[in-house]
Amino acid sequence: MKKIVYALMATVTGLVLLFSYRTSTVPESTSALADAPSSDVAMVPKTTPSPSASASSGSSSTSSGSSSAQTSSSGLTDGAFTGQAANTRFGPVQVQITVSGGAITDVQVPQYPSESGRDQQINSRALPVLVKETVQAQSAEVDMVSGATYTSTGYRTSLQSALDQARA
Amino acid sequence: MTAAFTVVEPVMGTVASITVVSERTERVERAIAACVARLRDDERVFSTYRDDSDISRLRDEGLELGDVDPRVAEVAADCRDLRERSGGRFDAHWRGWFDPTGYVKGWSTDAATRAFDELLADGEVEAVGVNVGGDMRLRTAATSDHVWRIGIAHPTHEGELLATVEVVDGAVATSGTSERGAHLVDPRTGVHLAGPVSATVIADDLTTADAWATVAAIAGIDDLDWMPVAPVASGIVWEHGRTRRFAGRVEVSAFHDALVG
């Protein structure tokens, strides 16, 4: 088990390095506010998979973590794992990974950096979650569909049109 | 949980789907009518398909901004600002005359959705979503725990979803070359994008989300340089089967790709 945790720690260190690479592309004006990215991050395994918004939406693989942790040949334990917050120049960033069947099936950033706090409400849920196997809108139970602008003719065969008819 | 109903109205060469989570009262019907009226009036001012629109007259009759509807000057100032902030990836003047078509729909939808302000404030409406041609402004009353669950259409697999996103109060916009009739031109070169490319951006309002979704689609999947300075919450870019996601001004999908290999 200890070995597994170390493996995850290495993974998170990799993430932090990627963060610092990303954030280094920002203009000087914002970097003046910055703290140096912290690298002392450890993973804290949760006993149960996190019931985050992302885990319940669309991707079937993220909901499969069971309470009895299983280790596969990849050395990764099934479940959701949350890293300690890393300080970036934008504020704290915290990474959560979901492991299913020994593979990392999702990476989320549950604690978003926010300069003002103003957009915290929208940020708290507004990360697009990839649908693993593309699914029909109806089976994904969505309220609306966003897509490249359709004409009034294109609308008739759109997913949005199908949803609208169901709710007229 | 109150049931939702949807009203569909043709506007701006596309269709507006207005979904309201509330009882269908007379007050709610009046707000829907006011919302549609605002969209149609902005279309009257900004349509490039009508010779008598303020935009067409500005181009054809040599008028100044001061001679036409004041909304045009407001949008023109916004577009200048966006051209600068996007490093020229958005430019309403690329054809040599002022054509804010790529900006007006989101801006107008935000304005039109304000028809529901009072109803949301006093709780008569729990939530309202206005989807104009695939770009939407979503509002939820402070007293409600409603969450909008939005699907992002797959750019090439018709009828399927690429991703989902949950929004309480904000906007979701997608720009791309994928749907019928949709095309994009890089204002820096005048070249039509070959595609298929699709960019979805989530922001506080649709003016911002729509404008930056256009910027993201023009930039393409290999250029996220605009993202750290964009006032947006998160998004996803898809091109030729590759995806990149970002949130809080950091890229997220790169980690996923790096980890999964």
Which terms summarize this structure?
heterodimer, A: 168 residues, alpha+beta, 2 domains, 6 helices, B: 261 residues, T-fold, nine-stranded antiparallel sheet, two-stranded antiparallel sheet, disordered C terminus
Written overview of the protein:
The complex is a heterodimer of chains A (168) and B (261). Chain A contains six helices and seven strands; from the N terminus they run ααβββββαβαβαα. With 168 residues, chain A is α+β, with helices and mostly antiparallel strands. Chain A folds into two domains: 2-132, no CATH class; 136-168, no CATH class. In chain A, strands 1, 2, 3, 4 and 5 form a five-stranded antiparallel sheet that branches. Chain A is elongated and about 50 Å long. The relative contact order of chain A is 0.14. Chain B is an alpha+beta fold and 261 residues long. Chain B has two domains: 1-139, Roll (T-fold), CATH 3.10.520; 148-261, no CATH class. The radius of gyration of chain B is 19 Å and the shape is globular. Classes of the chains: A alpha+beta (168), B alpha+beta (261). The interface between A and B is large, with 70 and 79 residues.
